Amino acid sequence: MTLCKFCREQIVESGLSFGEHHTLVTSVLDALRVKCVICLDLYGSVVNSKNISSNSHTLASQQANYTWRIRSTGRSRNLESSFVVTFTARLNGTRLLNSTPATRKYHIIAVTGIHTAAKGILTSSTDPSQLGGGLQIRDWLKDCNEAHLNCRRLSSDPTFVPKRLVDLELEHLESIRVVDTTEHGIKGPYLTLSHSWGPPTFLQLKRENESILMGPGVRITELTPNFLQAITVARFLGMRYIWIDSLCIMACSGGDFSTEGQLMHQIYRYSYCNIVAADSEDSQGGLFRKRDPESIMPVSIEADGSGKLGRGTWMVLKDDLWNKDLLATKIYTRGWVFQERMLAPRILHFAGSQIFWDCSTISACEVLPKGLPHAIDAGASIDRHWRGRMQIASTAAQSKYQQPLVGAYDDSIESFWSSALLNYTSCNLTDQGDKSVAIWSIAKLVRDVLDEKYGGGLWEHRLEEQLAWHVRDVARNHMSRLPELQHLHPSWSWVSLKGPIIAHGRLPKAREYVVTDHDGKAIAFKSHFEDNDKEPVLERVPLPMLGYVAQGTLATKAESQAFAVELSGLDQQKPGGSFDVFLDEALPPTSKKDPTSQPFIILASSVTSANESGHYRPSQRMTPRLSGYAATRPTALGGPTAPTTYSGIALLLVPMSAYIARQKSTFKELLQEVVRRSPEQSWPDPPYGKGKSLVDQTRDMQKLVTTLGGALNYVKGKDGTSGQLYRRC
User: Fold this and answer.
1) How many CB atoms lie within 10 A of CB 706?
2) How many angstroms separate the Cα of 344 from the Cα of each of 192, 357, 392, 409, 454?
3) Are residues 139 and 103 in the same domain?
4) Structurally, how many domains does the chain consist of?
5) ∠468-471-477 over CA atoms, to 5°?
6) Would you say residue 160 lies in a domain?
7) Pairing, β 175-180 against β 218-219
8) Taking every annotated instance into account, which residue ranges of this chain make up the domain Heterokaryon incompatibility (predicted)?
9) Which residues constitute the domain of residue 101?
10) Is there a single domain that holds both residue 170 and residue 296?
11) What long-range pairs does 405-413 form, CB within 8 A, spacing at least 24?
């Protein structure tokens, strides 16, 4: 890699602070030919360098689409100067290619301020058993064990081992077996593996093969590349035991996933190190990758001092190195792996071109082995910090030195939970039924700090504020309300949706008004748990609410795809106005064209200005968010009508009877489609819908319709005359 003539002369050496990047596409193509690290990143994904000659004729007359700006960022942690160059897509003129990034940042850091891999140290593969390979892995582990105070303290004398482990030291190294740790008195240490399953066609522990796997064992040739290469790493590290989920948990009918799956926070917390098959999308991808060592090294610049850079050698680093090259890999789109990454004390990530390292002290990679420079360490350092804090909290019960999860200089635990929730829900789950349990290990530690009940992904205190969570970018998540989630979870819980969730914080100051239950008490869910380590079971019943109900008109904003509610009246008053709405999923095209009347209930509000007599009334500045079950009783307000403004939150509602009617109609349509395609209701080919057969979709919808009917009957049987039953819109 290098810098092209334009980037070197116009940005690095000119002394200018800003300018236009490449005036012609032919200049971009020239930069791609010489493999400019910046231009490849900006344009490489959409311009095929192998077809430059065929593209150049059609693109030569178009204008380039970026401007650049360089500024000093002061001093790095080693007191060396550093600069950041920001590229921004032009808002006017002709865009070169619509799919190029909107912005990109690169850091230019003096070589004396960072430590890069020595020339020749990187091998042509990430396989540590290759001749000359694995030296950096051993160095990381040695430093972590000997020099990292926090990591050494967290690794002392584990008090937990999983129920089963894979034993790698049989008489014949060509075989492995699964062992019962209690029966054999095994205390560890052990490694863990994070991997993407893909189609479950690989070896798994089941009743029918238990006697073989836990008896004489199996030959390693029966294992998939993921398992086989993880064992290669384990043996390279001199470790005898490794925990692999599908071999150590019996997830079949009559198995023990219901108990072992609840212990993930201990399994990963007490592992010696977690191995991650980061670049593999299924069991066949493996961990190891071939590479050109020179191509992944940072580009160096020799500056003569005539421009902004002082005389000497400087390195160019991508701002998003950690996110793009590691967290954007296939494994980290999986929901289960989020908690594995946050809980393991040490992690070896085998990514596409190099190995990354994580512990509670540093985050590093093979080309930056002593740790990421401060300029690009922001995201990794936050995760690293909270990982360390959670590991401390998870051992507090066994330690005489009680240490809190949140320290004096930390962000609040609420901020951590909000960030964790968004990161987790941005990932995918093969089985949506795992939605709540796959984050339970994180939730349990947060619960212990907050010292309050947890249920349905929400917390006990000030529940009305939390109900205002919403889906990020609903336009991209139009299949978010899946029947398979709807029949398992109430609609007021984010667990009932598929998609990235933004939590609503609990305000520290008291509200002027909050919704209550039917007895005037704080609204609350009901949950129970069998023991402290297991996820609480939420009792799926309607959530009673008593509060102000208003009516508005839901419509699409003319200037965007966002939604708004226009007020048509509040307690027989008509103040007018409109406000933004966050929907759970995109509306059907017909709903966008025809505005509909929409009820909503005000959850909480604060006064921003009072009328002359000091009386307060809800006003149009309420911000409706999401919704859920809400059995409500509208209550009229008295008092003067002089203007008073409020800020607050509300839920959009739909009567349960109307919602059930819609789901029954969908269920009927699915049944008719099943009969039309397959009278025997056999598995259709190809699958109908998003990864599910038509028959399975129909069964999910049938479960939902049955569950909804049960909820309606529950409320009717409770008191017979109480308020209307609603569901989120």
Assistant:
1) 11
2) 9, 12, 12, 23, 23
3) no
4) 4
5) 155
6) yes
7) antiparallel
8) 190-340
9) 5-110
10) yes
11) 405/445, 405/446, 405/448, 405/449, 406/449, 410/385, 413/446, 413/449, 413/450
My answer on whether 55 and 17 are in the same domain is yes
Only one residue has tokens 């066949």, namely 284
- The token pair at 213 is 């796997």
Domain assignment present for residue 47? The answer is: yes
Q: Are residues 231 and 90 located together in one domain of the fold? A: no
- DSSP annotation of 5 reads H
In the DSSP assignment, the letter for residue 24 is S
Q: Give the residue from 365, 494, 389, 339 showing the smallest Cα distance to 432.
A: 494
User: Average pLDDT by consecutive 10-residue portion of the chain (729 residues)?
Assistant: 90 90 83 90 67 43 70 63 87 49 88 86 92 90 89 65 92 89 92 90 90 93 95 95 94 81 86 95 94 92 86 92 90 86 92 94 95 90 81 51 43 83 86 84 85 90 92 68 81 89 84 90 86 78 84 71 66 57 70 68 79 43 34 35 69 84 82 67 42 72 76 54 70
CA distances from 494 to 315, 423, 628 (A): 44, 14, 9
Distance linking the first and last C-alpha atoms of the chain: 53
C-alpha to C-alpha distance for 348 and 246, rounded to whole angstroms: 20
Q: Is residue 388 domain-shared with residue 425, that is, in the same domain? A: no
Measured CA to CA, the distance from residue 183 to residue 272 in angstroms comes to 21
Note whether residue 139 is domain-resident: yes
106 lies in the same domain as 142: no
Burial class (CB in 10 A: 0-12, 13-18, 19+), 574: exposed
| Cα–Cα distance measured from residue 286 to residue 387, given in angstroms and rounded to the nearest whole number | 26
How many other β-carbons are positioned within 10 Å of the β-carbon of residue 328? 14
SS3 annotation, 665-688: HHHHHHHHHHHHHCCCCCCCCCCC
The pair of three-digit structure tokens given for residue 536, joined into one six-digit string:
């609480």
CA 177 – CA 25 distance, rounded (Å): 59
Tokens representing 17 are: 């602070």
Whole-angstrom Cα distance, residue 427 to residue 338?
8
Predicted local confidence at residue 469, as pLDDT: 93
Same structural domain, 251 and 371: yes
**How far does Cα 699 stand from its chain's mean position?**
29
Q: Is the dihedral of CA 411, 416, 418, 420 positive or negative?
A: positive
Residue 292 shares a structural domain with residue 429 = no
Q: Is 340 exposed, middle or buried (0-12, 13-18, 19+ CB in 10 A)?
A: buried
Give the SS3 label for residue 510: coil
Beta bridge partners of 349: 276, 356
| Dihedral over alpha carbons 90, 93, 97, 100 (to 10 degrees) | 0
301: left (phi over 0), alpha (psi -120 to 50) or beta: beta
Give 725's strand partners: 631
Do the domain assignments include residue 445?
Answer: yes
Choose among 619, 624, 585: nearest CA to 603. 624
Compute φ and ψ for 506, nearest 5 degrees.
Answer: -95, 110
